[in-house]
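WP5 quarterly update. Target: VWCE protein. Source organism: Melospiza melodia. Length: 295 aa.
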Amino acid sequence: RGISREPGSRWTEPGCQSCTCQVSIPSSHPILPMAPSRPGMSHHMSWQGGQVLCDTVSCSVPCSHPLPAPPGGCCPTCTGCLHEGVARAEGDVFSPSDGNCTVCVCLAGNVSCLSPECPPGSCPSSSPAECCSCTPEKCNFRGRTYAHGARFSLDGDDCTTCVCQGGEVECSFTPCPVLDCPQHQRQLGPGQCCSTCRDPPAPAGCFLDDNGVEFPVGQIWSPGDPCELCICQADGSVSCQRTDCVETCPYPIRIPGQCCPDCSAGCTYMGRIFSNNETFPSALDPCLSCICLVR
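Structure tokens (predicted):
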């Protein structure tokens, strides 16, 4: 890169690359002990194979909270501390954000913190001047004494939970889920805190709003079309199904109230009914004779 480097010299390139200049002496020139110089003689040492070897700088950081590498540097330094995103100087004493009287010190890139040990019957305080000043009060409730933070039920009722907080008792009811049934279908069983939905009563039959008729379960009827039959099911719903007529003939006899025409009882021709194998004159041409045949 246009710069001469002495053999064996080491330097740092941009990108935290550590480079060194390595050269070698030709093997054909053995290295001899230096003899005293004679007048008129000079010693000449020839070098060859000048080579630059580079490798990424390996950082060894012997501390837990090092400072970021300074501008132009490659490795973090332990000359200070970086704690919770804040740079601290060597020997700096400070309190963390959620300290509660905890004190920390920066030493050689390491942060050491100490929390107060409060004696029994006291608790840590947020005030640095009085770290162990608060004393939780017990609760006297309905003839019984409860320690600070104790949770208990009200008169053995698991539906109410109480807690002792600094001499005061706070009670709250157990939250109940939202029910999706109407009020008259809700019930509260013995020993239960929350109501549950009762199963709706089984329907006694099927009620039809159009004509106000109630059919018992299992009843089969036709709603007006003889080819459609309906049945009242056990859950109170109505299921209907149509009948498909498969037998057809050109002149069947239609029986009132019957779905499919009857092709075996005789023939209906020009408004008259004729029995099987009956012969009769045509109403269109008196010279023609007709007969009713079953096919």
